[in-house]
Amino acid sequence: MSTSAQRLPFAPDERATRLRGGSRTAGLVVVLVITFGAVATGCRSSASKLSIRDETDAAQAWTNVVSLSTATDLDAATETEEVPFTIHDEATEYWDLSPEEAVHLTLANSTVLRQLGGSVVAAPDTATTIYDAVLQETDPRVGIDAALSRFDAQLRASAFFDNNDRAVNNRFLGGGANIIQQDLGNYQLELSKRGASGTNYAIRKLIDYDANNLPGNLFPSAWTAMWETEVRHPLMRGGGTGFNRIAGPGSVAGNPQGVVIARLNTDISVIEFQQQLRELVNDVENAYWDLYFAYRLLDTRKSARDRTLQILKRIRARSADLPGGAREQEALAEAQYFALEIEVQNQLGGRLSEGTEANNGSRGGTFRGNLGIHVAERRLRLLMGVPLNDGRLIRPVVDPLPVRVIFDWDEIVEESFRRRTELRKQQLEIRRREWELVAAKNFLLPQLDVVARHRFRGFGKNLLNSTNQPGYPIAGLASPRFDNAIQDLLTGDFQEWQLGMELLLPIGYREGYNAVRNAQLRVARERAVLDAAKREIRHDLANAISDLHRAHEVARLAQHRRQAVTSRRELLEERDSRTGGVDPAVLIDIYRQEADADAEYVRALVEHSLAIKNIHFEKGSLLEYAAVYLSDGG
Predict the structure, then answer these.
(1) What does the pLDDT look like over 588-613, one tens digit per residue?
(2) Nearest residue to 384 (alpha-carbon basis) of 283, 311, 495
(3) What's the predicted TM-score (pTM) here?
């Protein structure tokens, strides 16, 4: 960006409200730290119960059991505020404020990123806060830790006890008895872990207890202890590190919830926060210049009113010496005076109308300048998060930039494509859809798992032979066997293994093909949206550049008009002071013309400054323009 040597001389009128000049500098650096942490607040409230009054209708009678709680200890106000300024109040103290200070206070007080229009009240769920990014990251359903938790080791334990008492018709099928009485116990302890490639590892400890009346038993009751290890590895569907990081283990087609997707979702939420922060800074800038223009416009109207009042007083003082036309001149002066007084009151108190806001003709905001001081000041205070009235009236101290600013078109277009949050967010959307397409193709494979198990068994009369009772004598062994199950397990005499494969083949692959097709269409859609967004950004940049040059040229012409009208007014006043022969109607008209010329000149200067701001808005550098830098506080 370069500035030419052409300058618009900006000389505020002596009767203007005191405004200290200044220029936008990078001296103020506001660092907003996005703190990714959980904030827990607790409150205690005593609530009274308000019962729904009795009704004769049966449905209403049912609802009589419901009671509504009405909070009685809501905080009335967190801060004491004075009564807001009205047109009947006169400010005795002013708060001289620069745009940088306004932005700094806004960010310091913005737990909720406020927007004009009462959106926080009307739709609180849509309000943007500093907690949104960390809420996305810590979401127990789709957050990063939620995705990682699907790979966590799982400890599972169970214990079941059964008592069976039944009769069977066939002694052979009943194990030698027609009446079976049995006590069963089953205990299981398992530790399992899923690996990044989809392999599931498990180790189990199983203990069975069986006491029954079957005649062929070695012992009236016996224990079986087992150690079992299992490995299940998917060879096709669900296998591979890439798929499990994108979709997550056990995912279904069309709903990937892996770590990669969760990370992208968090990155998108951070960009959305930056986007809303940019909107907030943009609103503060717009509100600041609305208030600046309101002061200057009020000053022009006051000046014209006061001069018209002097004419009216002079006419009334000389009415006895003037011919019959004096009353007509007096009526004309009165009408003009009261018309200007109405404008002064409207400009001081303000009207509840739309001011300069984003998307009111341009993305950054097209200048309106129709609010008035009190309304514009309260809007700025609302955005800044300060009390609506602290006994002072905010007064802008920085004048609009009068110098002509020239931007290189190719440079700002390239910068906008690189920095605009909307484009960066859309690029992440494309990347997410591409990863989803990769995961969806995995569902075109059959489910083929390799399963391997190995088991150690132990059998005994007791689980642990704590009483040293002998076991069952076995032929060929010097000592009795199976006195306790744990000791038998440790011998390793009984080992089993299993190796096999499981296949699940959906006929037709309808779900898989539909998931792939849907993912391909989503990728195509997001790419089309990105291309359209780039074209729209170029269009908005062109409008902003055009408006910048228009505002500067209008300001130059408005200055010449202002100088010409001022010169004519001075000549008329000089002639009137010498000869007294100037028609009061001519003087009243020139005062109105000068007020309009002053207002048009200031409006053009404000529009020029807003046009510069809007170019930074369109090319994605508004935060740096306002000396705001983001830092991840961790």
Answers:
(1) 999 999 999 999 999 999 999 999 99
(2) 283
(3) 0.78
